[in-house]
Design a protein that fits this description.
- This protein is of the alpha+beta class.
- It has one helix spanning 3-55; strands at residues 60-71, 74-85, 91-94, 101-107, 118-119, 123-125, 128-129, 132-136, 139-142, 147-156, 160-173, 179-193.
- The protein folds into 2 domains: 1-55; 60-193, Sandwich (Immunoglobulin-like), CATH 2.60.40.10.
- Helices cover 27% and strands 46% of the residues.
- Strands 3, 4, 5, 6, 9, 11 and 12 form a 7-stranded antiparallel β-sheet that branches.
């Protein structure tokens, strides 16, 4: 019976040591699982953000074609702007802040060997509704994969190189038709008038 108190003391120390080991292993396993769950949550959140980004992808392909048109009444520049909505969202093109088409003559010095020195005064052009020449187009809604062509004809004073610019504000449309601004988009080209 002499060994019983010693055995009880050894047993309680052994049980306390075992309890500490179990607690330490439990904390380590809980930490590893917590980090794993947190990492999985972060990865899932990043994948969700990527899906959202792809769903809200806005891509417009703007192309400006300009050519010289000669008529009895003078020289003209015929302009065709092609806008293709290659994104996943409906967009609204807004032309209400500035005229969407602007043309300027490129001015050179007398030698014409170097880069242009400046641009002449701008000639502005509005876009008009099809078959309604007195109705100015202030905006155009475009669904995904839709392509629209705008045409304009501008009278120019004389021969030279002309810079043609198309610029529009773009709004991303939601299901209610309300837009969020995606900035201003533009495309340009040069045309030689003889």
């Amino acid at each position: 019976m002499r060994f019983f108190p010693q055995d009880a003391d050894r047993f309680s120390k052994l049980a306390a040591g075992f309890q500490s080991l179990v607690l330490a292993f439990g904390l380590i396993i809980a930490g590893v699982l917590g980090v794993s769950v947190l990492h999985s949550w972060e990865r899932a959140r990043a994948e969700l953000e990527e899906i959202k980004r792809r769903l809200h992808h806005t891509e417009l392909d703007l192309t400006v074609d300009a050519r010289q048109e000669v008529a009895v009444s003078g020289r003209y520049i015929g302009i065709q702007v092609t806008v293709a909505n290659k994104g996943n969202n409906a967009v609204r093109l807004r032309f209400d802040q500035k005229p969407p088409i602007r043309v300027s003559q490129v001015l050179y010095d007398s030698e014409r060997d170097g880069p242009p020195n400046s641009f002449g005064p701008e000639i502005d052009a509005q876009l008009y509704a099809d078959f309604q020449p007195d109705t100015i187009v202030l905006d155009k809604d475009m669904l995904p994969t839709e392509i629209y062509r705008f045409n304009a004809m501008l009278h120019v004073r004389g021969p030279g190189v002309y810079f043609v610019l198309f610029e529009t504000a773009v709004d991303l449309l939601d299901l209610r038709g309300v837009g969020r601004s995606k900035g201003r988009w533009l495309s340009s080209t040069y045309v030689i008038v003889r």
